[in-house]
Design a protein that fits this description.
Layout: H1 8-18, H2 27-31, E1 36-41, E2 47-55, E3 61-69, E4 72-78, E5 85-87
Antiparallel strand pairs: 1-2, 2-3, 3-4, 4-5
Length: 88
Amino acid sequence: MTTEYDSKESALEDGIFYIGYKNMDSPKKILEGLKSETKELGWPHSKTVELYKLKRPDGMEVGIGVGKFRNGYDLWLVDLETGVSMRM
């Protein structure tokens, strides 16, 4: 079942945890200075998200997407090379 987040910030904080930042002092420091872009997730999702590109602790670049969902937001992990997306 999809998690509904109250805010974009709380969705992004979980996304940062999921990509490998387990012991972080402040997720805001990791997101500081990152720009988002609008991305349309392809079939079967047909969903528009704000996509943030960042590096995991191992150096691999990944995407975290946040989109409107019900009365809040949902979280997507996006493979930047293939475009494969998974809602968390």
